[in-house]
Amino acid sequence: MISRRFFIKSSGLAVASFAAVPSFLVRSAFAQANAASKDRPIVIAIFQRGAADGVSMVVPFGDRHYYDVRQQIAIAAPTRGNSEVALDLDGFFGLHPALHSLKPIYDDRHLAIVHAVGSPSTTRSHFDAQDYMESGTPGNKGIADGWMNRYLQTAGDRRATPFRAVAFSSNMPRTLMGTAPAVAMTRISDFGVRAGSASDDITRAFEAMYGRNETGKETFEAIDMLKKANPLQYTPANGASYPASPFGQTLLQISQLIKADVGLEVAFADIGGWDTHANQGNQRGQLSNRLREFGDGLAALYRDLGDRMRNVVIITMTEFGRAIRQNGSGGTDHGHASCLFMLGGPVKGGKVYGKWPGLAPDQLFEGRDLALTTDFRDVFAEVVTKHMGARNVGQVFPGFTAGAPLEIV
User: Quick one: 327 exposed, middle or buried, by C-beta within 10 A (0-12, 13-18, 19+)?
Assistant: First the structure.
């Protein structure tokens, strides 16, 4: 017997919980896809794995203590005519110059930033902190499913298609694990169930379970439909240019899925390389290179989607920030709070949200880190309720009591 919740891994494919909601593959969903999915609210979550340095991404140049503790890796304050300094946002905060492609979106008020945000958990373990953020239950390892999957569960299957929830990953990410159907794949072109020496048994079992009924027929038709949308033949719109990196090509394919009107509602991707213990750099260097890829990718996705961004919110996250003081290797160690970005038509951008805790020695968390003033669940809860329409935030984030509304969306 194969349980109703299982994974298939073949050529970058993972399929979770296809048996949980048999009705989600009915033909009528596809017949109405073109009309309905264009007005469907969509959330795209991007995880910066490795703990991104929030005070380098969004520089508190107005806090004089910033330059006292980061003499080699600080980003210079804005000066007229200099492109290698922080890009002034509001007279206190500035974008890292490598994120210059995001500045026009901020100026157009469709990019918002939340600073001093993160998990109330004090762990400095990447594994635990990422697990807490993806489960949406900091400090609680007893919750099996992820917060994005719980959102899908609470919303029911009234808008569901096979590609309602898609992660670009070789394995199903923690945030999409649960009883609601979700798909993980590394590339659209590889999506499928293919026989092979290591997968014959599970492939035959999949076909035996689904291939002889209408549900199975719709599943395989959907797979064929998706594979015909070849990303190699896709031309981004509005002059968008994605980075040639895996991250850039993932964002390109998310745009392709949205434009294909296959019913995408939730998309997930991640980008690693943020654990900058050594040689972090300032306006140039290791972190700068990573930020340029990150910012250029987000800006390309925003530009490519064009007017479709009216129903899309992109939200970024990282498990924790970095220590405020640079270490002896020209880098930063594991910290506490960081920052996140939100982009999209529904976003009330052009503003840095959150209460700034300060960087004076007596204002730091445990004497070393940016203190937390906004729980990440306050931000995520606002997205799933105000943008996605979830009615019971307690089902998505169990045991959580929301703070004062941020009013970002």
Answer: middle
pTM: 0.87
Q: Indicate if the pLDDT at residue 292 is higher than 70.
A: yes
Long-range Cβ pairs for the range 67-75 (8 Å, 24+): 69/324, 69/325, 69/326, 69/359, 70/324, 70/325, 70/326, 71/326, 72/282, 72/326, 72/330, 73/280, 73/281, 73/282, 73/326, 73/330, 73/331, 73/332, 74/282, 75/282, 75/283
| Backbone phi and psi for residue 319, each to the nearest 5 degrees, phi listed first | -65, -35
Quote the pLDDT of residue 158.
Answer: 54
Whole-number Å distance between alpha carbons of 358 and 189: 48
The secondary structure element, H or E, covering residue 344 is: strand 338-344
Which residue, chain included where needed, has tokens 């959102």? 151
At 273, is the secondary structure helix, strand, or coil?
coil
Q: Give CA–CA dist 403/240, Å, rounded.
A: 38
In the structure, what pLDDT confidence band is assigned to residue 172 with cuts at 50, 70 and 90?
very high
* Residues belonging to the chain: 409
The residue whose two tokens read 């969306």 is 409
- Could you tell me the pLDDT band of residue 220, with boundaries at 50, 70 and 90? low
- Report which residue type is found at 158: R
Helix or strand (DSSP H, E) at 111: strand 111-118
Give Cβ neighbours of residue 90 (< 8 Å, ≥ 6 apart): 351, 352
Each residue of 386-401: pLDDT tens digit?
999 998 999 999 999 9
Q: What distance in Å separates the CA atoms of residue 67 and residue 60, rounded to the nearest whole number? A: 9
Evaluate if residue 192 carries a pLDDT over 60: no
Q: Are 359 and 60 in contact (CB under 8 A)?
A: yes
Query: Which whole-number Å values give the CA distances from 173 to 54, 146, 148, 177, 270, in the listed order?
Result: 23, 9, 10, 7, 9
At the topology level of CATH, where does 13-396 sit?
Answer: Alkaline Phosphatase, subunit A (3.40.720)
- The contacts of residue 94 (CB under 8 Å, 6+ apart) are 58, 59, 61, 75, 77, 78, 85, 86, 87, 88
**How far is 14 from 185, CA to CA, in rounded Å?**
6
